[in-house]
Amino acid sequence: MPPDSRTTSPTRPMRADARRNYDRILAAAAEAIAEQGAEASLEEIARRAGVGSATLHRHFPSRQRLLEAVFRDKVEALCATAADLAADPDPGHALATWLGAVARHAVSNRGLAASLMRGAQDGDPTLGATCHSMITNAGADLLARACRANAARPDVSITDLLKLVNAICLAVEQEPDGAAQADRLLTLALTGVHPAGETAGRRN
User: Fold this and answer.
1) Which segment, 109-113, 138-142, 173-177, is predicted with the most confidence on average?
2) What is the pTM of this model?
3) Domain 62-191 falls in which CATH fold?
4) What whole-number distance in Å separates Cα of residue 177 and Cα of residue 127?
5) For tag attachment on the chain, is the N or C end more exposed, with fewer CB atoms within 10 Å?
6) What was the pLDDT predicted at 178?
7) What mean pLDDT is reported for the chain?
């Protein structure tokens, strides 16, 4: 994901070493948030990334900027996954696989969305709406393919499915094996998405 234009000048591309540091910080932050929640220590994130605190703050002047970058990066990854799955010859499997990825994303956030909302006045006011639109559009395309293939009920909307995933993830967010539980519950729930006599379309 390209760096936020407010933290890095768009007219001066980052050097290769700066880009590596940026990417390492993002990866370390995502890992720390998944383990410790959105209040994970910035010093710990810098340590995991193998950079100094000054380097972290050069790329991300505040915790809010870092959290926004992590969230945006995850959303862009989900959209890329949806684009890849559009080539799956089994549209039902593609939709179920993507919803599973959304569930893992939500479980790993551990308070990220709530923290972003609390700090919204200091960050990007359009981030939430933009990311929601990106995810909705990506999922809607997969659902439309599944409906055309009779692999999903025509009265199901992508909003329904995303609410279902969100509810499941909220229920297991504090569990030590939350991702595994979310996957199991989602698999069970998706049997209600498919027409009578059809299977859920998920593969191991």
Assistant:
1) 138-142
2) 0.76
3) Tetracycline Repressor; domain 2 (1.10.357)
4) 29
5) C
6) 79
7) 83
Pairwise pLDDT comparison (196 vs 185), residue with the higher score: 185
Residue linked to tokens 């959105």: 38
Question: What is the b/e burial string over 118-152, where b = at least 16 CB atoms within 10 angstroms of the residue's CB?
Answer: ebeeebbeebbeebeebbeebbbbbbebbbeeebb
CA nearest neighbour of 146 among 108, 179, 84, 193: 193
pLDDT for the residue 35: 85
Architecture of domain 15-61: Orthogonal Bundle (1.10)
Contact 128, 119 (CB under 8 A): no
- H helices of the chain, in order, are 16-36, 42-49, 53-59, 63-85, 91-109, 112-118, 127-148, 158-172, 178-190
